[in-house]
């Protein structure tokens, strides 16, 4: 008499049913290799069974993983730099806008600030501005008119120049 092949049970197997239906016993748990030597033996055995195409795909995948890791490291390092670049870009001012010429007071400040700073190097920027403001108010109208006349001769900013 011929031996009959066992047939798998109908329906889905439950978690309590044995996974090996031929021998009706629960499968043995795999034990992890304990040493690196055993691990390398196991991997080399697997590598020998893989086809050339499979090996090629595996090498490509490993190369891709390495590239992704290196990109992540680079992006982490550049994160602060990129943030600063974006911040600088936001602050940039367009120079194509027509600029108003300096006011007479600012012309006065530009002319007198270096003299005041040379004579009083201990003054802060705020104190220097306050002192120049007092000096401007002490100026006579004729002196102020001189700065206004300088202003009339200056054209507005032309972006095509």
TrEMBL record:
DNA-binding region as annotated in the record: 98-161
Keywords: DNA-binding, Nucleus
Gene Ontology CC: one annotated term: nucleus
InterPro entries named among the record's database cross-references: HMG_box_dom, HMG_box_dom_sf, HMGB
Gene3D superfamilies named in the record: High mobility group box domain
Presence of the UniProt keyword DNA repair in the record: no
Amino acid composition bias (Basic residues), ranges on this chain: 42-93
Coiled-coil parts of chain: none
Gene Ontology MF annotations: DNA binding
Compositionally biased spans, kind Basic and acidic residues: 32-41, 135-161
HMG box domain sequence ranges: 98-161
Pfam families the UniProt entry points to: HMG_box (PF00505)
Region (Disordered): 1-95, 134-161
Protein name as annotated: HMG box domain-containing protein
Native organism taxonomy: Eukaryota, Metazoa, Chordata, Craniata, Vertebrata
């Amino acid at each position: 008499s011929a031996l009959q092949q066992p047939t798998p049970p109908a329906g889905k197997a439950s978690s309590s049913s044995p996974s090996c239906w031929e021998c009706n016993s629960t499968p043995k748990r795999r034990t992890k290799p304990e040493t690196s030597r055993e691990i390398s033996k196991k991997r080399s055995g697997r590598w020998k069974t893989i086809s050339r195409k499979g090996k090629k795909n595996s090498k490509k995948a490993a190369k891709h993983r390495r590239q992704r890791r290196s990109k992540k490291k680079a992006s982490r390092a550049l994160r602060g730099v990129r943030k600063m670049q974006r911040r600088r870009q936001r602050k940039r001012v367009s120079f194509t806008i027509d600029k108003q010429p300096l006011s007479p007071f600012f012309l006065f400040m530009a002319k007198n600030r270096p003299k005041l700073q040379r004579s009083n190097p201990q003054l802060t920027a705020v104190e220097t501005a306050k002192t120049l403001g007092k000096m401007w108010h002490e100026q006579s109208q004729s002196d102020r008119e001189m700065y206004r006349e300088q202003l009339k001769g200056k054209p507005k900013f032309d972006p095509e120049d």
